[in-house]
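Example record

Each entry pairs one chain with its bound ligand, iron/sulfur cluster.
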Amino acid sequence: MTNKQKQLIDAYQEMHSMTLPECECTCRVPYSCCDPMACEMAIRHAKESWGITLEHTGHPRLPLMEEGRGCIAEPHLRPNCTVHTCQINSFGYKPNDPDWTGRYFLLREQIEDLEMKVLAEREGVEDDAEDDNGTPGDDSSGSGEEG
Ligand code: SF4
Ligand code: SF4
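Structure tokens for the complex follow.
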């Protein structure tokens, strides 16, 4: 795994730690925003971008949902879900909290930048790709799927 990949995983984890409390505090129907298509997109993204196979959980509606546990995909494997909150989706900001909104969009910018750099590494178009193992673009050592 490269340094950029680690930074990207950390950035998604930080985003998760920002968005999860928004849902925990305000959601009337938890996971009501979840959609089977979003799960399938995450499954495809995990495989194509990280070399990780996410197995269906057997949940009756959502392939990556597990009863009593929640979503089994790590935040970086389901990017669209990780950055999603109802307020950002509805208003484009968090009402009455400009600090949170500012941090959110700064982090999104960082994530987008890192996504581009990780993609460039993977495609071998960045000369100075950093790699702990000395193998540019090696994404086969993902931490493995949760679950
Ligand atoms: S994004 Fe909205 S609907 Fe989805 S879990 Fe969070 S608060 Fe609930
Ligand atoms: S990937 Fe996870 S968070 Fe996203 S829709 Fe599926 S169960 Fe919900």
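The chain has a mean pLDDT of 87.
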